[in-house]
Amino acid sequence: MDGNGRWAQQQGLPRIEGHRRGVQSVRRATEECSRLGIEQLTLYCLSSENWKRPPQELDFLMHLLEQYMIEERATIVRQNLQVAVIGRRSGIAPDALAEMDRTVELSRTNTGLRLCLAINYGGRAEIADAVRQIAGEVQAGRLAADQIDENTIDKHLYTVGMPDPDLLIRTAGERRISNFLLWQISYAEIWVTEQCWPDFDERLLHEALRDYAARKRRFGGLPRC
Ligand code: IPE
Ligand code: MG
Question: Is 2 a catalytic residue?
Answer without folding.
Answer: yes
